[in-house]
Amino acid sequence: VHVTREFVAPTGIAAAAIFLLYVTTGFRSPYAQSEIFGPASFPRAILIGLIAVSFIQLLRLVMRSTTEPPHPGPSAQFDWLRFTAALAALIGYIILIKFTGFLPATLTFQVAILVVVFGWRDLRMVLGVPAGLTFLYFMIFVRLLDLPLPQGYGWFRQLSRVLYF
Amino acid sequence: MEIIAGWQLLISPEIALALVLGVTVGLMLGALPGMDATVGVALLLPVTYALEPLTALLFFVSLYAAAVFGGSITAILFRIPGSTEAIMTAIEGHHFTARGEAGVALGISVAASATGGLIACLGLYLATPYLAAAALEFGPAEYFALGILGLSCISSISSNDQLKGLAAGLFGLLLGTVGLDLITGAKRFDFGANVLLTGIPLVPASIGLFAASEVFRRIVRRESTLVQSVAGPTQERVRVRLPKLAELIRLRWTVLRSSLLGLAIGILPGAGATTAAIIGYSVETKVARDPKGFGKGRAEGIAAPEAANNAAAVGAMIPLLSLGIPGSATTAVLIGAFLIHNLQPGPLLFMRSSDLIYGLFAGITVANLLVLGLAFFTVRLFARLALVPYPILATAILSVCVIGSLSFGDVNAAGLMLAFACIGLVLELAGYPLAPVILGLVLSPIIEVSIRRALIMANDDMLAVLSRPITATILTIALVFLVAPWLMRTWHWLTADLSTAAGKKRKGKDD
């Protein structure tokens, strides 16, 4: 049996489902005494279904790999470094927006994405695009739609209040 | 009277603006590869937070109708479907572009789309009130069966691998059980985090799963442009040229047939516009007196899938508005728009706020007419939009994802959106479809609460619950939908095997 990437997903799903099945033993409620169908029944039925589907998938993969010659599969090259950078930028944005408010955080995030993730170096574009987008979003979300976006703390809060009202 | 009242609601500058904006944004999103109606609705859900319910809902339904047509713009011009609904149009339409007749193909596409949508609107007016009235008689057992029917479509929307579709649907159902149990109040899968006690909110989950994960996928795969090859049509002045009257008359049966087919497919839970387009095209190739020319740029090959997919998009609104059951992934996300405004789609909404529902019907009809009108002015612009450098689009989309989640909730909602973006990426890379996840998330509470209430009412007698006539009928239909793709595949496999064996036998005799 050739261990391929395709085995990882159903194996992982089955393992996670077995763990969650154990977690359901803790679902208790005093009101569930009279019911056959308690708070754990539905999640358990789903998890058993997930385990069954994963095993059928694995069985199919095993049968295929014994009857068919192994094929290398799509030679997709994944850029996990760029993904990690984008993820870090997004996490930073979500944290930053709470402290600095919408405007400075959005501008910083967009510059970070263009420079770090997409490797842009042209200063005019790196500053121009985020400035334009942030202004557009400010007009739509704050001025037009009046959405309750974070204002930040301290000096940033004062800045936001000046701009928002 | 109610129908007229619905039309009267549209006489307002705010509503007119929402319709025009919805259609414009829909055409734009549809034309952008990787951005379809589902992504658009998910991304823009929080934008309508401040709007009146009818205005917000009309914005989304017009966006939905327009995005389905919008996909055909890049399909015809670049052979890259803007959305999956335009797969068949890409096959046929690009041959027109190669012959220098892109405008003709776009004209056929927009005319067929609008006609298909309008024919389906008749179905919307005729079928929805009766279904809603019938649904008022439904009890928990029938709603359980309807929920199962909604799930049964998973095998039909997961054409590549039904098992993966089923696993994704089950995962969605599991996500729907997170938080306090709605019947007993027991904590489930909260892992000590208070934020999970209220369950998984639909809006941040949809934004993460559809919009942010798509950007992540392109980042991971190093896709820096939406359209790789741009030579040709974008350099020319592309204009929509409506077909001549004789051509329209020639295509009348194709459009009518495909529209009715699309409407029927759209009403079925889950079997959405993409399925309708594929079946519409395939039926057309079979019923055509002269099947030559299909796949080489034939007008029927554009008219059939385009009429079918727009009719299906309208048809998908019927189960949503009458029963509260989503008919497709987009309508599942659309439920979020109702929930934001404290509305629960279904028969009760139909009875209590019939003016809103009839206003929606009128709005959907106008949206289809607007697609016809606005396509003339916007096609060229939106075709060029596909050439915007992807880093700009990605930055814009990711910012809206965070802002949207924040406006819906707090930092926790944004974190949840991010978690779902990662889940969506992992699922996509492993080949699992995303639409069943959101359908499962929406249907999970309907299925669980209904079956448990039905069991309490029937003194835990499962047989009594399942043998109710309507419940049993709906469940049988669901079973047919669930196993039909497997049965058909087995049948094809068996017949192919038999014909191969027969061929070998004949060859042996000849030898």
Largest sheet of chain A: none
Could you give a short account of the major beta sheet of chain B? Answer: 2 strands, antiparallel
Helix content of chain A: over 70%
Number of strands of chain B: 2
Number of strands of chain A: 0
| H and E order of chain A | HHHHHH
Count of DSSP H/I helices of chain A: 6
Structural class of chain A: mainly alpha
Sheet/helix structural class of chain B: mainly alpha
Regions of chain A with pLDDT < 50 over 5+ consecutive residues? Answer: none
- Could you list the spans of chain B in which at least 5 consecutive residues all have pLDDT below 50? none
Strand content of chain B: under 5%
Distance between the termini of chain B: 78 Å
Percent strand of chain A equals under 5%
Oligomer: heterodimer
Arithmetic mean pLDDT of chain A: 85
Instruction: Determine the N-to-C terminus distance of chain A.
Output: 66 Å
Task: Write a concise synopsis of the structure shown.
Chain A has 165 residues and is mainly alpha-helical. Chain A has helices spanning 5-23, 41-67, 80-100, 102-117, 123-144, 154-164. Chain B has 511 residues and is an all-alpha fold.
Give the helix/strand layout.
The complex is a heterodimer of chains A (165) and B (511).
Chain A: H1 5-23, H2 41-67, H3 80-100, H4 102-117, H5 123-144, H6 154-164
Chain B: H1 2-9, H2 13-31, H3 37-44, H4 53-78, H5 87-98, H6 102-135, H7 140-152, H8 154-157, H9 162-175, E1 179-180, E2 187-188, H10 202-220, H11 245-250, H12 252-267, H13 273-287, H14 299-315, H15 317-323, H16 329-340, H17 347-352, H18 354-385, H19 390-408, H20 411-429, H21 435-457, H22 462-466, H23 469-510
Antiparallel strand pairs in B: 1-2
Word description of this protein:
The complex is a heterodimer of chains A (165) and B (511). Chain A has helices spanning 5-23, 41-67, 80-100, 102-117, 123-144, 154-164. By secondary structure, chain A is mainly α. The model of chain A has no long low-confidence stretch (mean pLDDT 85). Chain B has 511 residues and is mainly α. Chain B contains 23 helices and 2 strands. Chain B has helices at 2-9, 13-31, 37-44, 53-78, 87-98, 102-135, 140-152, 154-157, 162-175, 202-220, 245-250, 252-267, 273-287, 299-315, 317-323, 329-340, 347-352, 354-385, 390-408, 411-429, 435-457, 462-466, 469-510; strands at 179-180, 187-188. In chain B, helix 4 crosses helix 5 (87-98), helix 5 packs antiparallel against helix 14 and helix 13 (273-287) runs antiparallel to helix 14. The longest helix of chain B has 42 residues, at 469-510. The mean pLDDT of chain B is 84. At the A-B interface, helix 1, helix 2, helix 3, helix 4 and helix 5 of A face helix 9, strand 2, helix 10, helix 19 and helix 20 of B.
